Amino acid sequence: xxxxxxxxxxxxxxxxxxxxxxxxxxxxxxxxxxxxxxxxxxxxxxxxxxxxxxxxxxxxxxxxxxxxxxxxxxxxxxxxxxxxxxxxxxxxxxxxxxxxxxxxxxxxxxxxxxxxxxxxxxxxxxxxxxxxxxxxxxxxxxxxxxxxxxxxxxxxxxxxxxxxxxxxxxxxxxxxxxxxxxxxxxxxxxxxxxxxxxxxxxxxxxxxxxxxxxxxxxxxxxxxxxxxx
Length: 229
Prior knowledge:
The chain is of the alpha+beta class. It has helices spanning 50-53, 59-85, 95-112, 126-133, 135-152, 179-191, 218-228; strands spanning 2-7, 24-29, 34-38, 115-123, 158-163, 166-173, 194-196, 199-201, 205-211. Strands 5-6-4-9 form a 4-stranded antiparallel beta sheet, with helices on both faces. A 3-stranded antiparallel beta sheet has the order 1-2-3, with no helix packed on it. The protein has a two-stranded antiparallel sheet with strand order 7-8. Helix 4 (126-133) packs across helix 5 (135-152). The radius of gyration is 32 Å and the shape is globular.
């Protein structure tokens, strides 16, 4: 056991001080345990002893406690990270995550070939549906469109919400000749009526679809798709 005495004035052992406090901190170091106790008499400690304020914790207990706290902390961190990258209503990627994924996909396709298709989708009458059937019904329609698109597309494709009634779909295909059939399927999915509390409604949509060029950035592709809608 090694005992180290540290005075409140911060004076190191072996050095004199103009004024030395009676209360000291003794750190007890053992191979398997570390604890902290307070020296001095009870009169020197108006707030009581440290032993009465904190229970003695071994180093192993401390590590176990931190291990238990970490999953809870990481869970909250993951929640915050998810909120910063996803639309809170639909759970779709937001614009920041969309740009990141599109940039990665453009880089990958330049190296390995293939095409990146970007479609800007405007839900033209979403506001009218909300006004007629209620705000909740408008959300139901948006969620219904979201589910249909995500279930139709592949897991490596991205659907993002970039505005109140605007979505963007990023799709990758091996050859541009498959773009036509793919977008026909997208339009078919969007044209089907969606059930809401007040009945079934049909969503009016406008699509602006472009094929990314090798020289374009993610921002430029999105802007071109938006102008085409």
